[in-house]
Amino acid sequence: MKSTYHIHSPLVNIPINQQFEMGVLVVKLILLHSLFTATFILCSSSMHLNHYPLTGRLQGNETDWLALLAIKAQIQHDPNKVTSSWNDSLHFCMWHGVTCSRRHRQRVTKLELGSLALVGSISPHIGNLSFLRGLNLKNNSFTHQIPPQIGNLHRLQVLALNNNSLNGTIPANISNCFKLTILILIRNNLVGKIPPQLSSLSKLQVLSLQWNNLTREIPASFGNLSSLEAFAVTSNNLEGSIPSSLCQLKKLTFFASDVNRLSGIIPSCIYNLSGIVQFVVSVNQIQGTLPSNLSNGFPNLQLFSIAENQFTGPIPWSISNAINLVSFHCARNKLTGHVPNIQNLHNLRIFFVDDNNLGSGKQGDLSFVSELINATLLTRLVFSHNNFGGTLPKSVSNLSTNLDTLWFSGNQLHGSIPVGLGNLVNLQILVTEENSFTGTIPTDIGRLSSLKALYLNNNQLSGRIPTSLGNLTLLTILYLQENNLEGSIPSSLGKYHWLLELVLSGNNLNGTIPPQVFGLSSLSTILALDRNNLTGSLPMEIGELKNLGVLNVSNNFLSGELPNSLGNCESLEALHLQGNSFNGLIPSSMKELRGIRDLDISRNNFSGEIPQFFERFGNMENLNISFNQFWGALPTGGIFKNASATSVTGNARLCGGIANFRLPVCKSNKSKGGGLSRRMKLMISLVSGFTLLGLAVVLSLFFLGKKRKESELSTMGKSMLQLSYATILKATDGFSSIKLVWVLLDLYTKEYLLKIALLLL
What we know:
By secondary structure, this protein is of the alpha/beta class. The protein is 16% helix and 20% strand. The strands form six sheets. It has a 24-stranded mixed sheet, with helices on one face. A nine-stranded parallel sheet has the order 30-32-34-36-38-40-42-44-46, with no helix packed on it. A hairpin with a 5-residue loop joins strand 2 (98-101) and strand 3 (107-112). Helix 8 (678-702) runs parallel beside helix 11 (737-749) and helix 9 packs across helix 12. 41% of the residues are buried.
């Protein structure tokens, strides 16, 4: 059975979070160009600060002065005291963040208060700054709604309110700002539909609404935004299909509608927007096939991402001509067929085709890997969970030394893992899991000094674990489970100072567990060594695993008592010790494992009474103590109230508990309820024994002489002082009446009978 362990690796979010790197770059370039143009216009019309008089109230425009004071009044927290200069001691055109125009009688043309940690709301008096051309309040903590009075700013060209906490809807009358070229509302809490009225902004070049809670459809009227170059609505709740009217946006270079709920098919005319540089529609419900002339329609294409949709059919062969392509991401669709020839994609850095139905399961499916040798800038290559067959080309070791991610799990690959992977010196993530690789683990993997995650699990690898793996000192995840590895666990694994997860389950490993492994205090997620042939006991070093969540050493040949230091593993949520030969009592230190949820110590030789502190494990969801040698009363509180979550079978001397366990009723403990003590039982047993032997004792004493009697009384009286209660207890096998009789007979023949008589006196 294959292991169920599959803790999420650091790479889980890479396909979504990293796919926009080039997109962000293009937006920045567009914004930089636009902001430079706007700044140039503003600065060229502004006057030098030293030309302003010192009293702005009398010399400047009072409307603007009052508007700025109203804006200041709405700022509740100003940790950098940037508005402290906003007072009568300076002309308002000299206030921090304020730019004025000389030509228009000292009117405010630019308000720059971005990235100042300001807290408050945007005053509706902002609408009185009628000469304002640039408003930048980005990267602050402004709340409440965007005031609709912004629609009064007919000269406004740049509006940047991104990275705040603004809520409510987007004011439709922003459409009155007919000179607007850049509108950025990224990362707020805006709701409602995108106002279709914005389509009247014929000069708008950048519309960026990402990371809000906008709903409804993309307005079809947006096809009228004839100047639009960048359109981004990533991470909202938009529905419907991409309107075909967007095909009219001939200047469009950047399109991103990913992480929404869009459906339907992409209009074919969209693929004829020859200016497109980046096209991102990932994480939607879009269907259909990709056009065969994809790269012909997008001749300037650099980033293409359709991941996590429902696309079918093949990857277009024309992609071979997309010589400017930097990132290609079509993961998690239903694509079929072969990967086209990509040897001309010299600029390629990211290539994700995972989780599709690509390949035929035969040799030659991975020819594209050899073709990627020409992509000298390649950093991430992921083709996992497809139908690729055959062997992994040896040329994989000749891929770009910039490669940091190589992931080809879940295919039908066989043969050995090629020697030479150690050449990929910047590799950080290597995932070969769930294939049919055979042979040994290449020792030169130990040369990958930058490696952070290594997944070789669920293959048919054999041989020993190379000691060279200990050189991977930056490793955080090591998965080698479900192979045929043998030999001992190398102590060199103790060099991992950053390791979070170590799973070696389901192999043929033997020998003792190196104490260095238990000394890996960095382990915080899982340590799994189960289903091997490991021997020995758990060392005291196990107490170093104070941050560990899951410990599984089940189904080995481990023995001995549990160390008291186990109680130091206070973060444990799951502890699996079943199927070994552990013995002795459960250490009282385990009461410190207060967060334990899953405890399985079945099929061992533990003995004694079940610890009462098991009842106090409030988070316990599963407890299995079956097939041990526990005795006494089964607790009735805590987890023991739930018979379906607790297994106690195979402990013949247990009694009590709730009725569902069907255990025998416990006999009353008379030693605690006024019953006979052990000493009294001894007295009664002795008297019973003497009754049976009374006649023999009397006859024996009768034939003893008085002188000899006195002498022996003296001698045996002294010896009597050396006969202890414990000696009698042991000799009589717990005061068994039958055993006692035989002991007394033996004592008599050895002339020790008088010692017992003296003890009773």
